[in-house]
Amino acid sequence: MVNNELELLIDYVRRETGYSRAIEGDEDLLASEILDSFNIVSLAVFAQEKFGIEFEPDELVRDNLARLSNLVALIRRKRAEAAVKT
Amino acid sequence: MPASIPRYLTETAQAKPDKVAIVSGAQSITFGELYDQALATAECLRELGIAPGDRVGVCMEKTIDQVLAHLGILFANAVIVPILPRLKQPNIRHIIENSGMSAMITDAERLGEVAGFGDLIKLITGHGEISQDWPNLPYLRRFMQPRMFFDRISNDNAAIIYSSGSTGRPKGILIAHRNLAEGADIVSEYLGTREDDRIGCVLSFNFDYGMNQIWQTIRKGCTLYLHDLALPNDLFSLMSKERITALPVMPVIITKMFDRRLKVSTSAFDFSALRYVCTTGGRLSADMIADLRGAFPKARIFSMFGLTEAFRSTYLDPDKLDAHPTSVGKAIPDCQVMVLDDNGEECAPNVVGELVHRGATVNKGYWHDPENTAKVFRTHPRFPGETLVYSGDKVYRDDEGYLYFVARADDMIKTKGFRVSPSEVEAEVVRHPDIVDAVAFAVMNIAVGEDVACAYTTLSGKPLAEPVLRQFLKSSLPNHMVPAILMHFDGFPVTGNAGKLDRKAIKHAAFERLGIAPDTGITPPPVSTP
What we know:
- The complex is a heterodimer.
- Chain A is built from four helices and no strands.
- Chain A has helices at about 5-15, 40-50, 60-65, 70-85.
- In chain A, α1 (about 5-15) runs antiparallel to α2 and α1 packs across α4.
- The longest helix of chain A is centred in the last third of the chain and has 18 residues, at about 70-85.
- Chain A is globular.
- Chain A starts with a helix and ends with a helix.
- The model of chain A has no long low-confidence stretch (mean pLDDT about 90).
- By secondary structure, chain B is of the alpha/beta class.
- Among the domains of chain B are: about 5-15 and about 30-175 and about 210-215, Rossmann fold (3-Layer(aba) Sandwich), CATH 3.40.50; about 305-405, Luciferase, domain 3; about 415-515, ANL, C-terminal domain (GMP Synthetase, Chain A, domain 3), CATH 3.30.300.
- Chain B has 15 helices and 26 strands.
- A five-stranded mixed sheet of chain B has the order 11-12-13-14-15.
- Chain B is globular, with a radius of gyration of 23 Å.
- Mean pLDDT of chain B is about 90; it is low at about 520-530.
């Protein structure tokens, strides 16, 4: 299956940062300084709007956002939860 | 031993060797260990050929190993030259050449950016795994017998901190051991920093403000918690869990902590231990004060002001914040701050003059730059034989003696806690093949201080696609220097005689297009209502 969420997020990070080399899903983007403390928040806002979800305060932590694979897992979980509720 | 950080660490390590000095994630180090490891680092540097007075760069992530690099350099009688990790090669080369650096301590993440300088200077890794290519301090320390050979006097050089100037490349501010020791004493005196404090350190150790947190910790024997602020919740968790008592910040950090784009809730955390928040490096807005008070009702808020040439000049008594919310306060202990007119006479209350700083914390001058040093580090007939700092900044004093900042002397852009030189931005922008001229300037944005804006003209006469231009600039400029606002002009007005770019008219036109008053980006009002 094509990992659509991951590709959309990678595409966003590239546009936002101008970073042109390969980005891995499990790469810590803060440690590698591809993202800084300003645009990691933009990434969270983008993910909320793009995937129609809203993060709770305790979900907005480094562990969930610095690696895109973790963010994808969180997005999928939130969407699954929302689907159950409706 | 003379007044110096090596003396303060020696004393504190003897008095309380088992007290925890620094905590960084899962790692921690006691004062006894910090002392031994700093001496071992100094011994490594000596073995690697670092001589007394040598300039040694430090380009590292904020870790306990970075603190050990700084301390090791001081104990080795050498001089710390901090290098901002995000700097690009041309800027790093300037600092290497200008400082006459003999070695640089770096880490794996930054080797890519600095490895190319291996034939100019000795490269040493200060953190992480050993490799065959570079000597590694954490590995080498294990074989060193800690030995004390610090022999500087307090007037000797301890650090050179590079800071952007309005013309040309960054200038190095030369700091004596005495300055670092005075900074630790004075700041901990007026903030009331004490042994049982736990300081939450989100600041970078590449600037005097962040480094001063290390020096205060060493002086007072308190504990420093290192943290890189990315998401506010992570900082709040640390503060709550570790019962942080002191939080030094900058306005841009307050903006990040209470980012309006996020659902930030502080109610789940326990901040009852927090005694004070202190801030410097830009104006505090009414929103920022309200956010801090809302989240930390028990904390006192210290608003402070300083120049890199004299580290710190003023602070506002937290009890006066409501009465004088836009004031930068009064002089710090052991310093005098004067407001002088063009004749060197003290200005009457409410009359704007130049801020002149006298007393402790006056640094030694600009490294290898007698011309600029003579302009700023000067004498005054009333204080013969004494060097004062003439800041060039315009300030005034109210009837009660509280100082207010009016305007800077230079056209530096202060953004996200950095000083950005318009000429450095312009030099990179005009490297784009289609760009003819560029004029960079500040646009007020209180959330980050100021935004970097840049107007440009092109050969083709057409505007460039913004993402493309930004991407081009990001290859040579650190993120904070990439303009947030890019504006294409068909042509630039020039001044009559020499055909020079009429910067004033260009800025005026740009502000008009942005729909803001022409002077808001340049001169903050004398007294702004919150």
